[in-house]
Every structure is written in structure tokens, then in C-alpha cells.
Write a structure and sequence with these properties.
- This protein is α+β, with helices and mostly antiparallel strands.
- It has four domains: about 5-70, no CATH class; about 75-155, no CATH class; about 165-220, no CATH class; about 225-295, no CATH class.
- It is built from twelve helices and 13 strands.
- The strands form four sheets. A four-stranded mixed beta sheet has the order 3-2-1-4, with helices on one face.
- Strand 1 (about 20-25) and strand 2 (about 30) form a beta hairpin.
- Helix 1 packs across helix 2, helix 3 packs antiparallel against helix 4 and helix 10 (about 245-255) packs across helix 11 (about 265-280).
- The protein is elongated, with a radius of gyration of 28 Å.
- The model is unreliable at about 70-75 (pLDDT under 50).
Length: about 300
């Protein structure tokens, strides 16, 4: 079962018992709050494009409530939105400040009914909001969000629930794996009173990528090959210990580890290992490099 099918299953579960899942013969899947909303003039709260395999997987779950075709006008608008956004994202930098306006203009020129007032309001609430538009004959509105290079269409109820954070807030909440000003250059933002605010959805994706990069970096360093000098080997022979046991013991003391093969030798040993590490100047050099980099920024 693909990730998209799992996402649909989870979305329907979260939507509640009254939710209605519609699937077209071409693989368009739409989730509505109620069955009544699935009629020709209805507007889905979520929408997905499935390939033939995903379509069959979804059918096999037994969660599809109805099958057929969507209203032509609404379907045409959705298709134009997705095709236009995809093409523009392929041809432009996602953070280009003029990109969303150009997408909106192209959609309007293609016949998509853009609600300019709603779009202007929604853009003050989310940096990833492209436009608010009307699909088909429904009185309801949808909005276009581009997040991490992906286009999503959501039902619009007059308010965008985006969590916005300033840089000081980002430093506070993302302190375990810090996010720098340099990291934020690839994200869109809203500016208020001279201060930039970023969408937490973007920040979570960024933090996840940084975590994945850190994991990959650590894995590349985990297995180490050393050519040990005779002097160190002689010390190991003198105390009837292997080089691995000596090094593992020092690492355990330095990092206060208690899981084999890294078992600390005691509190005094931990104290002296930390003092040795600090005395060598590793931390002070790292802090100096950090301050130099911050000064350049």
C-alpha cells in the first residue's frame, strides 16, 4: 500500500463518520465532510490524484463511498490549478517573490475564478498561500498552498490556520538541532513590522531534513579505522587490555555511557575525561568558529 493511499485512509478517519470519499474512474479521489457536499456543486476538503495501482488499492480498502465523475467545471478548475502550479514550479525558484502573483495571473487568464479579496487576506496569514479560487458552481472557495515544492488544494473557510514563528522563536523551539539564518533563505516568509515570520510546516520539514542529514553524516563517521602506534599498544599490553577496551572506556567516561560496550569507569573518571576534553580546547575553538561565522552573517 502506497503512502498516498495510507494518507487518504488517515484523512477519512480523522474527518469523522459523516465523511464521504469519492473516487473517479480516472483516479481523482476527493474527500467531503458530508455526502451532500459530494454533489456536482460541492467542494472537497481534500483531493488526491491516484495512479491505477493506488486506485485499486484504495478500492480494496472498502472505504470508497461513491464512484463516478466530478462536476466538469470544478474538475476543470482543479486540473488547471495543478498543471499551472507544476509548470511554474519547474520553471522558477520556489522563493521568487513574484512567483505566486504570476501563477495567479496565469490561472485567471485560463478562466479560473480568483477571489482577489480573499487571496489578499489569506496571504497575510500564510507565506505559502498562492490564491483563493472558486471551482465550479459552488458558493464555496478553495485555496492553493505550495509547501516544499508540492501543490495542495484545500477547502477555504475564511481563515488559514498557519503557525508562524519569528527567528528568535525558531531559535527557542528548534534548539536541539539549530536552524540558522542561512537555512531560512530557502523558505518563504511574511513580513510584519520589519520582522520575518515563517510557516512552522516549512520549519518542520526543514528540521526533518537536517535530522536526516545529521544521521547520514554520523553513519558515515561511525566506523573508524586507526593505525595505532607501538607506544599505545605497549600500554595496552602492560595492563592486559585490548586497544578497543581502552578507547571504549575513555569514550564511555567522556560521554557518560552505560550500555555495552561503552561502560563508564566511574564518576571521577568521567570528571577527568571531561577536564581533559575541555583542556584540549575543542569547545573553545568551536565557539570561536561559531562567533566568527555569526559575525560574517
Amino acid at each position: 500500500m502506497t503512502g498516498t493511499v495510507k494518507e487518504i485512509i488517515d484523512a477519512k478517519r480523522r474527518a469523522g463518520e459523516s465523511a464521504f470519499l469519492w473516487l473517479t474512474h480516472t483516479g481523482v479521489c476527493a474527500l467531503y465532510d458530508r455526502e451532500e457536499d459530494s454533489y456536482e456543486s460541492g467542494t472537497p476538503v481534500r483531493r488526491w490524484e491516484l495512479d491505477p495501482i493506488e486506485r485499486e488499492q484504495l478500492i480494496e480498502t472498502g472505504l470508497v463511498d461513491g464512484m463516478g465523475v466530478l462536476g466538469c467545471n470544478g474538475e476543470d478548475a482543479f486540473s488547471k490549478v495543478e498543471a499551472t502550479c507544476l509548470r511554474m514550479l519547474q520553471e522558477n525558484e520556489p522563493t521568487d517573490p513574484t512567483l505566486f502573483d504570476r501563477i495567479t495571473n496565469q490561472l485567471a487568464a485560463a478562466g479560473v475564478e480568483i477571489d482577489l479579496d480573499a487571496t489578499a487576506k489569506a496571504r497575510t496569514e500564510s507565506p505559502n498561500l498562492v490564491a483563493v479560487f472558486k471551482a465550479g458552481d459552488s458558493d464555496g472557495l478553495d485555496y492553493i498552498e505550495i509547501l516544499d515544492g508540492e501543490t495542495t488544494i484545500w477547502g477555504y473557510n475564511g481563515e488559514i490556520q498557519a503557525e508562524l514563528l519569528s527567528f528568535p522563536q525558531i531559535q527557542h523551539y528548534y534548539n536541539e538541532l539549530p536552524i540558522s539564518q542561512e537555512d531560512l533563505k530557502g523558505l518563504r516568509f511574511i513580513e510584519r513590522d520589519g520582522q520575518k515570520f515563517y510557516d512552522e510546516a516549512d520549519l518542520q520539514l526543514l528540521s526533518q531534513r537536517k535530522e536526516e542529514e545529521r544521521t547520514a553524516r554520523r553513519e558515515s563517521l561511525r566506523n573508524l579505522s586507526l593505525v595505532l602506534p607501538d607506544e599505545f599498544l605497549a600500554l595496552c599490553e602492560e595492563v592486559n587490555e585490548t586497544p578497543a577496551a581502552i578507547l571504549e572506556g575513555f569514550i564511555a567516561d567522556l560521554c557518560d555511557l552505560e550500555t555495552r560496550p561503552y561502560i563508564t569507569n566511574g564518576s571521577d573518571e568521567r570528571m577527568f575525561a571531561q577536564q581533559y576534553f575541555d583542556r584540549c580546547g575543542y569547545r573553545s575553538r568551536a565557539e570561536w568558529d561559531k562567533e566568527q561565522k555569526a559575525g560574517k552573517e
